[in-house]
Amino acid sequence: MEFKLCEDMFGSDEVDAVISVTKSDKWTMGPCVEKFEKEFAEKFNFNYALMVNSGSSANLLALTALCNHKRYKHLKPGDEILVPAVCWSTSVYPIIQNNLKPIFVDSNPETLNIDAEDIEKYPNAKGIVFVHVLGNSTNMDKAMEIVKRKNMVALEDTCESLTSKFNNVFLGGFGDMGTFSFYYSHHMTTIEGGMIVCKTQEDYDILKCIRSHGWTRYSENVVSKNYDCVNKKFCFVDIGYNLRPMEFQGSIGSVQLKHIDARNKIRLINYNNINTKILNHRKNNNFIKIPNATPGCEAQWFCIPLLLNTSFSGKKLNELMEYLDSKQIENRPIITGNFVRQPVMDIIDKHVDPKDYPGAEIIHNTGLYIGCPTNTILSDEKLNLLVDTIFGFDLFNKPILFFKEPFNIEKSIPYVTDAIKSTWISMDGVYLDKCKELLKPIVGCEHIILTLTGSSAIRCMVKCLKFRYPDCKKIYVPNNIFMACINVLLHEFPMEYIEVIDVDVDTLNIENVDNLEKNSALFVVHNVCGITNIPKIKRDRPDLIIFEDNSEGYFGSYEEFPTGSQGIASAMSFNMNKNFTSGAGGAFCTNDKELYDYILSYSRQGFTEKKFYHQMVGDNLRMTNVTAAILLSQIEQANDILKEKKTILETYKKYIVETKCNILTQKISENTESSFWSFVFRIKDNESYAKIEEQLDKFNIDTRPMFLPVQNFDHLNNITHTPNTNSVKIFNEYFYLPSNNVNENTIKYIINCINKIIEPN
Fold first, then answer.
1. Which residues sit opposite 179 in a β-bridge?
2. Is 281 noted as a catalytic residue in this protein?
3. Which of 69, 74, 186, 187 is catalytic?
4. To pair with 575 at 20 to 30 A between CA atoms, which of 191, 272, 372, 418?
């Protein structure tokens, strides 16, 4: 699609006006300009209006007049003049051209303007150039109260904000003078052209004089008195310029002025519609923000300013702008960005540091704008095409991953480097020993063996069952769990020994063991972030042989005991998405010394303490010292990791409540404490997980299901399982949401997207 920064606002009326001038005998400044000046002043309630040949000339002329010695209060060489860091070049240059000193004031990314109270920070300032950016202003009531109290001179650069008001007063009418631009892309156009407005006859006379060479030909006024020695038609009383407009510009201005209100209405409708589409777009995960009008300002935005999330600043902003160019969506930076970064500052003041203007830096690095049509109201089809195209940018289409990256993994780099350089790269070393000591209080076990993977640790538990209880012929495993436990059991036991049992539909854990066979084995899996209450099960059924898959459970507790401590043995996983990660890794944990000794030998290829002497058939399941170096960096941050996890869950709950989102969280079993590993949510009576996944994918939200019921796998068709199972219901109703490295804005976005999905139902 083609989407321009500005539209042609010329019609037949403007053409007729230009032709009329060209047919007349007056092309230079004359009655058409004077007529337009009077119409402009009358329409916007200004005392005086003076047209010039451009908005930049308006700034130059206004500041020159404010420095004029004939003025009752005038600026003097060297005076400090405040100017926003986000401004146009000719908001600054006239300050320098009049031998004044520009002092830059930071801009607020929320409004693109300065904060009025910041004026107080500059006690030596004698004047200020307000730059009303793209239609918005600062709090002009507060700003002018400070300006008047400090006896400052004020110029309003209103070139981008014609027709905007603050508390029902048109911008440009607050300061000593105000300037406007009629450049082709602005609210109205005379192709090139500008206007200065002022309050007093004195200022008006000075402006007229300087506009035309410093002479007094055009009026009898105070600056022309007492010069009888020269011809009044060529009486030069001051140093001036030739900044006069041409007649055809005045004639166009009068026509444009008649249409400005109608065009503003169209622009405002398009502005609101485009903004709404952008802010509510299904892919806008806080990627794009729209600056706000300052409270009290009735902003007439002449474009659509956009601010990217700061994570997209700099190079990525340029990539987006190039992408938009490729799609024929014209765009540009917000004015000059942070003007302090412009190369010309080497001439103005090379000692000014851009980093001293953090707000302007954000605008510079994340800001751009696109056009806002003024001739026609965009159809819904065109709006959708525009906004969908914007969000087609590849960086806006990266999924919000279920698992993003490990917590502060950079901390592991020096440890890993040290481990690689040490003698013990592989199976022994200081990092393995440190990890085991730090893990002991976390899982409440005295004996720990670090393994290659979590599945390796589960294999060690299964070996313990076979070693300690060789006659056990009934092993219970919960449904809707990761398959590692069942897979490993099937390597050691026949399928008929294994029975899959239901988990509770609310807690996703085993809650009832009354009907289990006596003296059977139970492999408990602490599921997601919920904990099975092992002490309670042991009281209810002391005959059961209990092992714990604690891969998702560590950080949790039952009856104040750490998870993993109350079974015969437990397994931990340090896979990429677990609370601690070493990429891959696990731990076998127990308080039983005999089992520890047995597994220590088994996991080391059956070795004994005697060098290279094997006492059994074993495996090599040991973690390397390098892997342990990564793990140690994670364990040392346990408190920070847990704090982040808790914050994420509480934030999910906050927005579920605030938005009245019709989803449930996993219920935590009585007398247990969550592990805060990952977070699953439930849409009660939902009939298909696949539909949830499909809808969330449209919003770039990565999700995953609860594990499929065991009976869904072909190779496990013959395994015994509860006939009336909750497992299908659990699979359809529950889904995981991103649970690490997600900030509040992302969580808010996720919940809002879920509301959009389930509201139609």
1. 157, 196
2. no
3. 186
4. 418
